[in-house]
Design brief:
Elements: H1 4-9, H2 23-45, H3 52-59, H4 63-69, H5 73-95, H6 102-119, H7 125-132, H8 134-161, H9 169-181, H10 184-189, H11 194-208
Amino acid sequence: MRTLLGTARAYDRPMPRISAATISEHRAQTRDRILQAVSRLSRVQGIDAISLTDVAHEAGITRTVLYNYFPDKAALLLAFTERVTQYFIDSYERELPADASPADRLRAFVRLQLAGLLAHPHPGAADLSAALGPDAYQRLAEHVEPMQRILVEILESGMESGDFRVADVPATARMIMAVVGAERVPLISGAVTVAAAEALVCEFVLRALGSESSA
């Protein structure tokens, strides 16, 4: 089964020489090349440690060219986060059968979130906020909001079917995301695998939701 991690690793293919018929195509290819570089670097040194110089060197362009696309690191990370979020949504929709149970949908959500944490290591929310500043961090949060919306929909469907017991859906969604995020350091350090983390998180969350599928 292909996951967000598998999708991200597609970036590891050798970069082709940019050859476009139009200026707009050339810009699109260069932008993609830059974001590919961020993807690779994030798995080597973490997003928080990446500099614009690192990205330009990895992408095979000058810093001047990079600034023509992204004026600062905050803008670059916002674009990268938007792309990763879209990969998540596409992977979730592609992998999940239309008739999947709320518990199976939740498991898929958790698995892809964990795979994403491993594919693109990044600091916690507090560290990102300090690094980017409140305005950029707020825009970053808006970019990942679609993932939160998917989780809310899963919880609501579980309530409607009687599979989940939830008192406050938005608060519960935030708590689930916090539980997933707690596995960030163990995943990055290699202390746990995605499969092991998925089993632990899903058992904990499904039991908390009162689901019989936690067994």
